[in-house]
Specification:
It is built from five helices and eight strands. By secondary structure, the chain is an alpha+beta fold. The protein has one domain.
Protein backbone atom coordinates (compact mmCIF):
# COMPACT_ATOMS: atom_id res chain seq x y z
CA UNK A 1 0.00 0.00 0.00
CA UNK A 2 2.88 2.37 0.78
CA UNK A 3 4.13 1.82 -2.81
CA UNK A 4 0.77 2.96 -4.20
CA UNK A 5 0.75 6.08 -2.01
CA UNK A 6 4.27 6.96 -3.15
CA UNK A 7 3.34 6.33 -6.79
CA UNK A 8 0.27 8.56 -6.52
CA UNK A 9 2.32 11.29 -4.82
CA UNK A 10 4.98 11.22 -7.52
CA UNK A 11 2.39 11.47 -10.26
CA UNK A 12 0.56 14.27 -8.43
CA UNK A 13 3.76 16.23 -7.90
CA UNK A 14 4.73 15.72 -11.56
CA UNK A 15 1.47 17.25 -12.72
CA UNK A 16 1.15 19.91 -9.99
CA UNK A 17 3.04 22.55 -11.97
CA UNK A 18 0.43 22.64 -14.70
CA UNK A 19 -2.40 22.36 -12.13
CA UNK A 20 -1.25 25.51 -10.35
CA UNK A 21 -1.54 27.43 -13.61
CA UNK A 22 -5.22 26.56 -14.03
CA UNK A 23 -7.72 29.33 -13.35
CA UNK A 24 -10.77 27.16 -12.64
CA UNK A 25 -11.36 26.43 -8.98
CA UNK A 26 -14.18 25.36 -6.72
CA UNK A 27 -15.88 27.87 -4.48
CA UNK A 28 -16.59 25.01 -2.07
CA UNK A 29 -13.77 24.25 0.37
CA UNK A 30 -12.22 20.82 -0.15
CA UNK A 31 -12.43 18.52 2.88
CA UNK A 32 -11.48 14.89 3.44
CA UNK A 33 -13.99 12.53 5.09
CA UNK A 34 -15.79 15.65 6.33
CA UNK A 35 -12.70 17.04 8.06
CA UNK A 36 -11.07 20.35 7.21
CA UNK A 37 -7.34 20.35 6.65
CA UNK A 38 -5.62 21.26 9.89
CA UNK A 39 -8.03 19.14 11.96
CA UNK A 40 -6.27 17.54 14.92
CA UNK A 41 -5.28 13.90 14.79
CA UNK A 42 -7.06 13.30 18.11
CA UNK A 43 -10.40 14.46 16.71
CA UNK A 44 -10.09 12.10 13.75
CA UNK A 45 -9.02 9.26 16.06
CA UNK A 46 -12.09 9.85 18.24
CA UNK A 47 -14.42 9.42 15.25
CA UNK A 48 -12.77 6.26 13.87
CA UNK A 49 -11.19 4.75 17.01
CA UNK A 50 -12.64 1.25 16.52
CA UNK A 51 -11.61 0.81 12.90
CA UNK A 52 -8.40 2.81 12.61
CA UNK A 53 -4.93 1.34 12.14
CA UNK A 54 -1.83 3.33 13.01
CA UNK A 55 0.66 3.45 10.18
CA UNK A 56 4.20 4.56 9.66
CA UNK A 57 5.09 8.17 10.37
CA UNK A 58 1.89 8.65 12.40
CA UNK A 59 -0.48 8.08 9.48
CA UNK A 60 -3.87 6.54 10.21
CA UNK A 61 -5.80 4.23 7.93
CA UNK A 62 -8.77 1.90 7.77
CA UNK A 63 -10.63 -0.20 5.24
CA UNK A 64 -13.80 1.37 3.94
CA UNK A 65 -16.19 1.78 1.06
CA UNK A 66 -16.71 4.94 -0.97
CA UNK A 67 -19.50 5.15 -3.58
CA UNK A 68 -19.78 1.35 -3.40
CA UNK A 69 -16.07 0.78 -4.10
CA UNK A 70 -13.83 -0.93 -1.53
CA UNK A 71 -10.80 1.09 -0.55
CA UNK A 72 -8.20 1.90 2.06
CA UNK A 73 -8.71 5.33 3.57
CA UNK A 74 -5.52 6.99 4.77
CA UNK A 75 -5.05 10.18 6.80
CA UNK A 76 -1.65 11.90 6.72
CA UNK A 77 -0.59 14.46 9.33
CA UNK A 78 1.97 17.17 9.79
CA UNK A 79 2.53 18.27 13.39
CA UNK A 80 -0.63 16.29 14.32
CA UNK A 81 -2.77 18.27 11.86
CA UNK A 82 -4.48 16.73 8.84
CA UNK A 83 -2.50 17.65 5.70
CA UNK A 84 -3.59 14.99 3.21
CA UNK A 85 -6.01 12.14 2.72
CA UNK A 86 -6.02 9.23 0.31
CA UNK A 87 -8.49 6.74 -1.09
CA UNK A 88 -6.62 3.72 -2.43
CA UNK A 89 -9.19 1.58 -4.19
CA UNK A 90 -8.79 -2.16 -3.67
CA UNK A 91 -11.56 -3.49 -5.90
CA UNK A 92 -10.38 -6.17 -8.35
CA UNK A 93 -11.81 -6.69 -11.84
CA UNK A 94 -11.14 -9.48 -14.33
CA UNK A 95 -12.29 -7.11 -17.10
CA UNK A 96 -9.74 -4.31 -16.79
CA UNK A 97 -11.98 -1.82 -18.62
CA UNK A 98 -14.12 -1.77 -15.49
CA UNK A 99 -11.34 0.20 -13.75
CA UNK A 100 -12.01 2.97 -16.25
CA UNK A 101 -15.70 2.85 -15.32
CA UNK A 102 -14.70 3.12 -11.65
CA UNK A 103 -12.47 6.09 -12.47
CA UNK A 104 -15.35 7.84 -14.25
CA UNK A 105 -17.74 7.06 -11.38
CA UNK A 106 -15.31 8.62 -8.88
CA UNK A 107 -14.70 11.64 -11.14
CA UNK A 108 -18.46 12.17 -11.48
CA UNK A 109 -18.93 12.04 -7.69
CA UNK A 110 -16.14 14.55 -7.07
CA UNK A 111 -17.45 16.80 -9.85
CA UNK A 112 -20.93 16.71 -8.36
CA UNK A 113 -19.53 17.93 -5.03
CA UNK A 114 -16.80 20.38 -6.15
CA UNK A 115 -17.65 21.34 -9.73
CA UNK A 116 -15.80 20.74 -12.97
CA UNK A 117 -12.19 19.57 -12.70
CA UNK A 118 -9.43 22.07 -13.37
CA UNK A 119 -7.76 19.37 -15.41
CA UNK A 120 -9.12 16.15 -16.93
CA UNK A 121 -6.70 14.25 -19.15
CA UNK A 122 -5.45 10.94 -20.41
CA UNK A 123 -1.84 10.33 -21.34
CA UNK A 124 -0.59 7.65 -23.74
CA UNK A 125 3.05 6.70 -23.23
CA UNK A 126 2.68 3.91 -25.81
CA UNK A 127 -0.12 4.12 -28.41
CA UNK A 128 -0.22 0.40 -29.25
CA UNK A 129 -3.88 0.06 -28.09
CA UNK A 130 -5.04 3.64 -28.70
CA UNK A 131 -7.28 2.63 -31.62
CA UNK A 132 -8.91 -0.21 -29.66
CA UNK A 133 -11.08 1.03 -26.76
CA UNK A 134 -11.85 -2.58 -25.79
CA UNK A 135 -8.19 -2.80 -24.65
CA UNK A 136 -7.91 0.53 -22.82
CA UNK A 137 -8.03 -1.20 -19.43
CA UNK A 138 -5.27 -3.54 -20.53
CA UNK A 139 -3.27 -0.54 -21.76
CA UNK A 140 -3.63 1.00 -18.28
CA UNK A 141 -2.34 -2.22 -16.67
CA UNK A 142 0.75 -2.10 -18.90
CA UNK A 143 1.47 1.53 -18.07
CA UNK A 144 0.65 2.66 -21.61
CA UNK A 145 -2.36 4.76 -20.59
CA UNK A 146 -2.92 6.98 -17.56
CA UNK A 147 -6.05 8.92 -16.62
CA UNK A 148 -5.87 11.89 -14.26
CA UNK A 149 -8.12 14.70 -13.10
CA UNK A 150 -7.68 17.45 -10.56
CA UNK A 151 -9.82 19.93 -8.69
CA UNK A 152 -8.74 23.04 -6.76
CA UNK A 153 -10.61 25.20 -4.31
CA UNK A 154 -10.29 28.91 -3.55
CA UNK A 155 -7.73 28.13 -0.80
CA UNK A 156 -5.41 26.24 -3.16
CA UNK A 157 -6.33 22.82 -1.75
CA UNK A 158 -6.18 20.01 -4.30
CA UNK A 159 -7.92 16.76 -5.19
CA UNK A 160 -6.03 14.54 -7.60
CA UNK A 161 -7.65 11.43 -9.13
CA UNK A 162 -5.37 8.94 -10.89
CA UNK A 163 -5.80 5.68 -12.76
CA UNK A 164 -2.47 4.17 -13.76
CA UNK A 165 -0.72 0.85 -13.93
CA UNK A 166 2.43 -1.08 -14.54
CA UNK A 167 3.41 -4.72 -14.92
CA UNK A 168 -0.23 -5.83 -15.37
CA UNK A 169 -1.34 -4.13 -12.13
CA UNK A 170 -3.88 -1.29 -12.05
CA UNK A 171 -3.80 1.43 -9.40
CA UNK A 172 -6.75 3.70 -8.73
CA UNK A 173 -6.55 6.39 -6.10
CA UNK A 174 -7.48 9.87 -5.01
CA UNK A 175 -5.28 12.32 -3.13
CA UNK A 176 -6.75 15.20 -1.14
CA UNK A 177 -4.08 17.64 0.03
CA UNK A 178 -4.05 21.04 1.60
CA UNK A 179 -2.09 24.10 0.60
CA UNK A 180 -0.53 24.86 4.01
CA UNK A 181 0.52 21.78 6.00
CA UNK A 182 1.26 19.43 3.10
CA UNK A 183 3.96 21.65 1.51
CA UNK A 184 5.54 22.13 4.95
CA UNK A 185 5.61 18.35 5.47
CA UNK A 186 7.21 17.78 2.07
CA UNK A 187 9.83 20.49 2.68
CA UNK A 188 10.70 18.90 6.01
CA UNK A 189 11.00 15.45 4.40
CA UNK A 190 13.51 16.82 1.88
CA UNK A 191 15.69 17.84 4.81
CA UNK A 192 15.83 14.19 5.88
CA UNK A 193 18.33 13.54 3.06
Amino acid sequence: MKYLVILLLIIALYHSISFSQSKAESTKTITFQGFDFGTSKNLILSKYKKQIKAGKDGDLSFSGNVINLDCEILFSFYQNKLCAGYYLFTVKHSNQNLYINDYKKIADAITEKYGKPTRDDEDWSDELYKDDPSHYGFAVSLGHLTYFSSWHDHKGNLIYLNLSGDNYTVNLGVIYRDNIYYPQQKAEEKNDF
